[in-house]
Amino acid sequence: MRSILSIIALFSCCTLAAQEYIPTYGRELPRGEVIAYPTAQEAAAASAGDTRYFTRLADWTQKDNVFSTEFTVPFAWANRQVFFHLGWASADYEVRVNGKTVAYDSDCSTPAEFNLTRHAQEGRNTLEIVVSAPSQVARLESWKSDPAPAIGPAWVMSQPTLRVRDVLTKSWRSSEENDKVMAEIALVVKTESLNPRTSRIHYELLTPAGSNAAIGYKDVTLDMRREDTVRFLARIPDSMLWNPGRPTQYTLRVKTQHEGRYMEYIELPLGFRTVELHNGLLAVNGNPVALRTREVPPHFPAEEIAKLREQGFNTLRLLPGPVSPTLYAVCD
Q: Is the pLDDT score of 3 beyond 60?
């Protein structure tokens, strides 16, 4: 009888501790920070500022746990996609557009994107971020201390119906040439069109000196709301690989063309290297590397990273929390 009562008490405690599970919805698949521009000239002139297809959201009004602002969908965004990007939030949150809840994200420490095309209207729109208070996921994240509601950097951006969704890279040593590494650049292309759509993807990979490591184009046809990957290869000399002593970066330029018109332009810095395990030892570009690790907060200052590098540390182990993109840029 005592065993039965103990089991009943145990299940009662589990019920009291349980919380409603709300799955993430309305969020785009994660991707790198791909910012598209209309032309190369506008990309060069933007320097992290606004363009006709990109607007940073800086003027937020906070009331308790609700952050609100306005954004405008101009006529030039007609027949294009509208995306909202949020760097992080202090807790799980809802996204509301013009008073309607359109998304929920429980993974609040990582950047997230939301396609607002069906919810935004031409002209002025209201956008609200409702941060959970108390957090629905705080019990699962022991590092959190229920901080005051806060959100990170945010912007809205427009891309064509057929767009470059992400850029991925992979490197491996060539079996034919020991002094060369094969670099694969994969352009993830997606369409929101209801009809088959064909576009031409132009690519150009430049060395740090500005010469062409690879150049060309590929045509891609996608059915209704499909996604595909356009891949191309380049041979990278061993001396031009990224390594801690010489962080070499190439420049990738991508243009999409539809029915003769250039639709978007993307420029990204890329580094290539090989990472393998040899007999239990980490090897970068075929050379063994001993990891000297230091645990740091996710918003560690750039000057402190430089000091650690001078002291011989080559690996950062980040404490929990949203990571500043600046930290990744400094490490690169």
A: no
